[in-house]
Design a protein that fits this description.
The chain starts with 6 loop residues before the first helix and ends with a strand. The protein has an 8-stranded mixed beta sheet, sandwiched between helices. The chain is built from 11 helices and 23 strands. Helix 7 links the parallel strand 17 and strand 18. By secondary structure, the protein is α/β, with parallel strands linked by helices.
Length: about 475
């Protein structure tokens, strides 16, 4: 028998607690509820972050240091989202967006934030990713200030807009975030002006000539997407009609009108992508008029760009990006360089005069064809490119006796394949630079790469002003 008089009540209290269902945020907060928040920071997608009843809340359009009221839109066990309702105390860094639809579609999510604060945010995005994945020594990494633009507008050299009918009129633009509801974009402050002039003229012609426009719900119609790319250095432009069939009614009339209006368009292409698919491009591309490519110049080299070939969207920042990559690699003339995820060869070819040999690869055949043609175009004889996955080709080259002394990787947003990481760790190139367009997958990859490499520094570069996207150059030193 226990003589402690507190024993029985204590037992009842513990028993009561253990049998009561735990209260969650879903039990105490309702969708549609209006809540007060003080915004502490920005999340990786540019949304404001505050806390209500100890629960994290993401509020699109809110900025750090703002006091706001927000309307709850979704409630999850560990977090919630809300729409900005009113700003009670405004951030000193809040500015008026140039685009009226900046809060509707992607690509403008930071246009309400002063540009110097955008640059600091992008360095912080890298920091947030490192804190989440915690690669070895991450708290000591040197994160250099983000390299920005003097004029952070009109930089995108390619417009890729969906084409639909809205209220009986042809519209060209982007989808609202999280939906397939099209927002017509008659202007766009981050696009090169020529891309928009061509786009709007094409829209007018599609309307005037009553060209069948794709209907996503029924899978009918023809024109799905219009792509306009401008070579900024040469002012050459390429127009691509992405269609639901091989037919393109009134193509001759459209091209004839456009040729009168735009001497800059030297390439008219059609890409066929039939049926409902999440992919923008199909496999078949044909030339309707003019050349199959446009020609641009970058860092003293000339590049042919076919319709599907990857090419950086911000040419002025691309020069800065490649300068940082060259500085980080610090190459010598007796070394072999691998240019992984090469696109049309822009990085590798710009480094060819500093090394013995460049080998590169890409999974898009048109890009590889362009890369090899670009090598010839520029009189570069020590660079070759192949079609294939980086992880497969590097292993094959090593098995055949080729040793990569230096490696530069510029992967898609998904980051490096695990097999390629294993190959890199086996090859142990002395000079290694990683160009990343996604800090989250970069930080994830660093958890594996830091077993054999030390991070000298991470240099963030703003390739996409007014957005939450961030590019970074990582310089590695091999552990001995």
């Amino acid at each position: 028998m226990n003589d402690n008089k507190n024993y029985k009540p204590q037992f009842k209290k513990n028993y009561h607690k253990s049998n009561q269902p735990k209260t969650s945020v879903q039990d105490t907060i309702e969708i549609g509820q209006r809540i007060p928040l003080t915004i502490k920071r920005l999340g990786i997608n540019g949304e404001g972050i505050g806390y209500f009843k100890h629960t994290i809340c993401f509020v699109k359009g809110a900025l750090p240091d703002e006091v706001v009221t927000a309307t709850v839109t979704t409630v999850h066990p560990r977090y919630m989202t809300a729409e900005l309702h009113t700003i009670r105390e405004k951030s000193k860094n809040r500015v008026e967006p140039r685009d009226a639809y900046a809060d509707e579609v992607g690509g403008f999510e930071l246009e309400h934030l002063a540009y110097p604060a955008q640059l600091e945010f992008k360095r912080d995005v890298v920091r947030q990713a490192l804190e989440k994945y915690r690669p070895a020594g991450h708290q000591y990494y040197k994160l250099l200030p983000t390299i920005g633009m003097d004029n952070p507008y009109e930089y995108r050299n390619k417009a890729q807009f969906q084409i639909r009918k809205l209220d009986g009129k042809v519209a060209a633009g982007l989808y609202k975030e999280g939906s397939h509801d099209l927002v017509d974009l008659p202007t766009c402050s981050v696009q090169h002006p020529l891309t928009m002039k061509i786009m709007r003229r094409v829209v007018a012609l599609l309307d005037e000539l009553d060209v069948p426009i794709y209907d996503e719900e029924h899978g009918s119609g023809i024109v799905k997407t219009i792509v306009v790319r401008v070579a900024v250095a040469t002012n050459e432009a390429q127009l691509v009609f992405i269609t639901n069939s091989t037919k393109l009614p009134h193509k001759r009339e459209m091209i004839a009108e456009l040729q009168k209006d735009f001497l800059e368009i030297v390439s008219y292409m059609q890409n066929v992508n039939k049926g409902k698919t999440s992919l923008v491009w199909g496999d078949d591309t044909t030339c309707l008029a003019g050349k199959t490519f446009i020609q641009d110049k970058l860092d003293g080299l000339t590049f042919n760009l076919s319709a599907r070939a990857f090419y950086q969207l911000n040419p002025s920042q691309t020069s800065k990006l490649y300068a940082e990559a060259r500085k980080a690699l610090d190459l010598s003339s007796d070394e072999n360089l691998v240019d992984a995820y090469s696109g049309v060869g822009t990085i590798g070819l710009s480094l060819a005069d500093q090394v013995k040999e460049v080998r590169g690869m890409d999974i898009i055949p048109e890009s590889v064809e362009d890369a090899n043609e670009n090598a010839k175009l520029n009189g570069i004889t020590n660079a070759t490119y192949e079609v294939g996955r980086a992880e497969d080709l590097v292993s094959q080259w090593m098995a055949a006796g080729f040793h990569p002394d230096a490696l530069i990787v510029d992967p898609p947003r998904t980051g490096l394949d695990d097999k390629l990481i294993e190959t890199i760790l086996a090859a142990k190139p002395e000079r290694f630079v990683y160009i990343s367009c996604n800090p989250s997958t970069l930080a994830r990859d660093l958890t594996k790469l830091t077993t054999d490499y030390i991070i000298d520094y991470i240099q963030s570069i703003d390739m996409f002003p007014q957005t939450a996207r961030c590019e970074a150059v990582v310089k590695f030193t091999r552990r001995w």
